[in-house]
Amino acid sequence: KGMGNISGSATANLQASTTFGPGIKASFNANMALSHRENGNAYTFGLSAPVFQVATDKIEIGGNLTYGDAKYNQTYFGVTPTQSTNSGYKAFSAKAGFSQATANVAWTHVIDKNWSVRSAVGVSQVMGDAGDSPLSKKKTNPLVITTVNYAF
Asked: pTM of this prediction?
């Protein structure tokens, strides 16, 4: 609708995490553009904690905050004057800052030493300049996901 395309980019996804206390996990993820650096970088900070755990099942609560640099937030939430003219959206400049917060409850069921199933429900909130963007039609969205996992 006149917004143009965001060029695909090779990215480096770097993650570090640590566990402390009774299974509380803190994590940091950096999604950094290696090509098309104008797309910017995003950083996610996470925290999760188990509320129930037995040999085959674990239920945990968690949350994440995503921070986008100025290039990232402008690429995904901003509207340049040219895009405004072409699309009808109001021009909008997005600055660096926190763009999304999520909270979830997840259940992991271990089938055997290789296979597991993980299901999660939660909510995602777009915030800051990202939430103020004319491109953000809904600020709050539900999350539902199920994955089948194989570890070797």
From this structure: 0.87
Q: Is 38 left (phi over 0), alpha (psi -120 to 50) or beta?
A: alpha
22 band by pLDDT with thresholds 50, 70 and 90 = confident
Report yes or no: 51 and 59 within 8 Å, Cβ to Cβ: yes
21: left (phi over 0), alpha (psi -120 to 50) or beta: left
C-alpha separations of 126 from 48, 100, 145 in Å: 20, 4, 19
Cβ–Cβ under 8 Å, residues 85 and 129: no
The 3-state DSSP composition of the chain as helix, strand, coil percent (nearest 5) reads: 15, 55, 30
Whether 1 has a pLDDT exceeding 80, the answer reads no
Quickly list H helices, the chain.
Answer: 70-77, 81-87, 128-132
Widest pairwise Cα distance in the chain: 58
Burial 58-71 (b: 16+ CB within 10 A, else e): bebebebebbbbbb
